[in-house]
Design a protein that fits this description.
The protein is an alpha/beta fold and 305 residues long. The protein contains 9 helices and 15 strands. The chain has 2 domains: 117 residues, 2-Layer Sandwich (ornithine cyclodeaminase, domain 1); 179 residues, Rossmann fold (3-Layer(aba) Sandwich). The chain is 32% helix and 24% strand. The longest helix is centred in the middle third of the chain and has 19 residues.
Length: 305
């Protein structure tokens, strides 16, 4: 059995590795031989701490990702997020590979954002607004900076201290980040808006979003979570990683029944149109599908030799 621990997967992982792996996974998700199974969401003995199980298969790969979000880790100085990917040896039904993937999961999630933005955001997008100040928000910004030449990055956080911390992390990498004066001005200035939070209510108002903006909800991956205002839905074209899952546990659980959703894999493969013109508002919901985990685990195993 192959085992790659957290230190090694973090060493091998990168935005450069994640982008093609996740692009391939999103295209694979719409193929007839792909299956993504219902997400299991549970909580630990302390109900503030939760875990998820996501599983999927293709013609040549099957596996499970177990993710955890332990809020109580703050008190002991550990990351809130943990992750482990298990790939089956399909010839005997046993686990053939285990990849610990805490940092890798951050690359994987950010890559989905970047792949979708590359397909949907205007080519002249230069201003990014990010809601959220945690570790994942930093990865989102880094990934987007690879696919668009960002000239301004506006950070919106609940506390000035955390916003300042993220700005410092980004500017240390040479990225043009600054704390936003307020959410409304940050939205009205943006070409791209990304939310990476655990919010359960909209973070801004629909009328603050101007025509031509691309938005991505990266934090809604459970029932009750919500980052975007539903008032956007009748003004925007809606895309996601997997429509059934997005309606169940993603941002589009809040969309009216029958709202058209397009799998981003269909846009990437040329089977469906993406942005039609510079006035389109496009929204991408990333609830996170297990095929992304399987594909990035396979990429790490190949890199490990």
């Amino acid at each position: 059995m192959i085992f790659i621990d957290e230190a090694r997967s973090a060493e091998l992982g990168s935005h450069e590795m994640a982008y093609p792996a996740i692009r391939d996974a999103l295209i694979a998700a719409i193929q007839p031989d792909a299956a993504s199974y219902p997400v299991v969401i549970g909580h630990a003995s302390d109900p503030r701490n939760r875990f998820t199980l996501k599983s999927a298969s293709t013609a040549d790969m099957a596996g499970v990702k177990v993710g955890s979000y332990f809020l109580t880790n703050d008190a002991v100085g550990l990351p809130r997020h943990g992750s482990m990917i298990l790939l089956f040896d399909q010839t005997i039904g046993r686990i053939g590979a285990i990849v610990e993937s805490g940092r890798l999961n951050a690359y994987r999630t950010a890559a989905a954002d970047a792949v979708a933005a590359d397909a949907l955001a205007r080519s002249d997008s230069r201003v990014l607004t990010v809601f959220g100040t945690g570790n994942q928000a930093a990865f989102e910004v880094e990934a987007l900076a690879r696919i668009r030449p960002l000239e301004r990055i506006l950070v919106v956080g609940r506390t000035p201290e955390k916003a300042a911390d993220l700005v410092a992390r980004l500017t240390a990498q040479g990225l043009p980040a600054t704390a936003a004066a307020d959410a409304e001005s940050a939205c009205r200035s943006a070409d791209i808006v990304v939310t990476a939070t655990s919010a359960q209510a909209p973070l801004f108002q629909a009328e603050w979003i101007r025509p031509g903006t691309h938005l991505a909800s990266m934090g809604s991956d459970g029932r009750g979570k919500q980052e975007l205002p539903t008032g956007l839905y009748d003004r925007a074209r809606l895309f996601c990683d997997l429509p059934d899952q997005s309606r169940e546990v993603g941002e589009f659980q809040h969309a009216p029944a029958g709202t058209p959703l397009t799998a981003i894999g269909a846009v990437l493969s040329g089977a469906a149109p993406g942005r039609r013109d510079d006035s389109d508002i496009t929204v991408f919901d990333s609830s996170g599908i297990s095929l992304q985990d399987l594909f990035i685990a396979a990429a790490v195993i190949r890199a490990n030799g």
